[in-house]
Structures are given as C-alpha cells and as structure tokens.
C-alpha cells in the first residue's frame, strides 16, 4: 500500500513541459541564424565563403583548429574587396580632376576674351557668356558689317583678330552663327536672310582661318531671322537680333560611326 502511494506521488511530480527546453534551443539557434544572415546582407564573395565554412563547421561539430583556420580566412577577402573599391574610386577621381581642369581652362579663355574685347563689352556691342555648353561671344552685326552686306568692315577685323588670338591654341570646336532680323532682303547677292546670315558667318570663319585657327575646328551656320533673342517689333530689338555668335564648345565633338544598312534593307515595291 505504501509502495503504490509512493509511485502515485512520483507520477504526479513528473514534469510534462520538458519539450519547452528543446523548443527554446531551436528558437535560439534559429534567431542566431537570422542574425548572421542580416549581418551579411551586403554579401561579398569573402563573407559568403566564411559563412559557408562556419555553418559547415558548426553542424559537423568540427574541432577548434578548424574554427581557427576559418576565422583567420575571414580577413583576406575583406582586404581584396577594399582594394577593388579603391581601384574603382580612382577612375572617378581622375574624371572629376579632368573635368575641373577643363572648366578652369574655359574660364581662363572667357576672361581673356573679355579682356581683349573690353571696350566693345562696355559699349554693349559684345556680350560674353559661359555655360555648361561652352563660351558664347555675341557680337552686334553693326560692329562687323555694313547694312545688307557680308564683307567685314575694316575696323571690325581688330576685334575678331583678338578673339582668334585667344582661341587658336586650343582644341575646342567653334561654331560661328549668323543671325538677322525679320526685315526681308532681296538683292542680287542675297535673295533672302538665309544667304545673308550664312555669308556673314562664313566671313568670320575665313578671318579666323587667316589668323591661325585650324579650319577643321570651325563651322559656319546661318539661321536668318529664325532665332531672335529680342522682339522684332522695335528698332532696338531688331538691332539686337542682327548679330554673329561665336560659340566655343566645351566638349569635344562626337565621333560619328557609319553603320551600313544596305545589307539588311528591304525595299517594298
């Protein structure tokens, strides 16, 4: 009777929640696993290799020497990764340095042009501006040409020669643009403002070439009255629109690659 009662007491004190210990261990391991995964969310090859070795060693219960070798291998891939990052930064720094030098060079050129044309700039006959596209020297047509003519006046060559002296030793491409007002013209030499504006731009280009500017860098363009910068309703606005713009481009001209298309071109009859 006493033995049966003792057995009942032992059964009543038995712990039925021992499974919580195993469950808690499992949750702890799972939590540690996700912490490791979060820590290496920015994966590189070295860290991934270290993780794989660590997991294999942990699950195989490898000895301490293996763990030490894995830990020592952790540092080599990191140094390689850092060196690659440094190498990738160098081209960016060099590009920024070249861009800064080009900007300084363009600013120096703009200052030299302003200094050379200072009297005309003060009189409002010449405007020099600089933007990301380059330097624009806007010269009033009355300074360069007689009304309705495309031949450079004698006193105008000095101003253009000063500009040519500044730009001739540089490699930048130069566009010379001719512009007119909207008053129609119809003469034997110039049937329209197109011809007049183009001939004026060509006269400026010819003078630049004669003063040492490489011809391959120069382009003459005539826009006629189609790109006004002021209204043509007033004499002042028309005077402003009659101009020659010398544009010194900041970037090198794009190299055009010809792509043959005749091979695959099909013409439907």
List the helices and strands and how they pair.
Elements: H1 2-12, H2 19-39, H3 45-59, H4 64-72, H5 75-116, H6 118-122, E1 126-131, E2 134-140, H7 141-144, H8 157-167, E3 174-179, H9 193-210, E4 218-224, H10 235-241, E5 243-249
Parallel strand pairs: 3-4
Antiparallel strand pairs: 1-2, 2-5, 3-5
Average pLDDT rating: 78
The biggest beta sheet reads: 5 strands, mixed
Uncertain runs: 62-82, 253-265
Please report the distance between the alpha carbons of the first and last residues: 115 Å
Structure description:
This protein is α+β, with helices and mostly antiparallel strands and 269 residues long. Helix content is 53%, strand content 12%. The chain contains ten helices and five strands, in the order ααααααββααβαβαβ. It has helices at 2-12, 19-39, 45-59, 64-72, 75-116, 118-122, 141-144, 157-167, 193-210, 235-241, and strands at 126-131, 134-140, 174-179, 218-224, 243-249. It has a five-stranded mixed beta sheet with strand order 1-2-5-3-4. Helix 9 (193-210) links the parallel strand 3 and strand 4 (218-224). Helix 5 (75-116) packs antiparallel against helix 8 (157-167). The chain is elongated, with a radius of gyration of 40 Å. Mean pLDDT is 78; it is low at 62-82 and 253-265.
Quick structural summary:
By secondary structure, the chain is α+β, with helices and mostly antiparallel strands. The chain has 10 helices and 5 strands; from the N terminus they run ααααααββααβαβαβ. It has a 5-stranded mixed beta sheet.
């Amino acid at each position: 009777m006493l033995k049966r009662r003792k057995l009942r007491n032992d059964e009543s004190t038995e712990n039925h929640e021992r499974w919580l210990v195993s469950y808690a261990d499992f949750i702890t391991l799972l939590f540690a696993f996700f912490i490791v995964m979060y820590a290496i969310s920015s994966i590189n090859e070295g860290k991934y290799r270290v993780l794989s070795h660590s997991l294999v060693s942990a699950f195989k219960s490898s000895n301490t020497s293996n763990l030490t070798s894995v830990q020592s291998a952790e540092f080599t891939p990191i140094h390689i990764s850092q060196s690659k990052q440094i190498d990738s930064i160098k081209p960016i720094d060099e590009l920024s340095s070249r861009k800064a030098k080009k900007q300084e060079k363009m600013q120096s050129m703009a200052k030299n042009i302003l200094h050379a044309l200072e009297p005309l700039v003060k009189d409002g006959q010449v405007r020099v501006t600089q933007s990301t596209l380059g330097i624009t020297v806007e010269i009033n047509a009355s300074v360069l040409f007689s009304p309705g003519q495309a031949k450079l006046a004698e006193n105008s060559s000095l101003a253009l020669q000063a500009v040519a002296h500044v730009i001739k030793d540089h490699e930048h491409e130069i566009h010379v643009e001719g512009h007119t007002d909207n008053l129609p013209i119809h003469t034997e030499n110039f049937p329209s403002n197109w011809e007049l504006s183009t001939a004026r731009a060509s006269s400026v280009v010819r003078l630049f070439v004669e003063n040492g500017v490489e011809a391959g860098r120069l382009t003459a363009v005539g826009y006629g009255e189609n790109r006004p910068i002021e209204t043509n309703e007033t004499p002042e606005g028309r005077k402003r629109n009659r101009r020659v713009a010398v544009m010194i481009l900041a970037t090198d001209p794009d190299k055009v690659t010809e792509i043959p298309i005749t091979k695959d071109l099909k013409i439907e009859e």
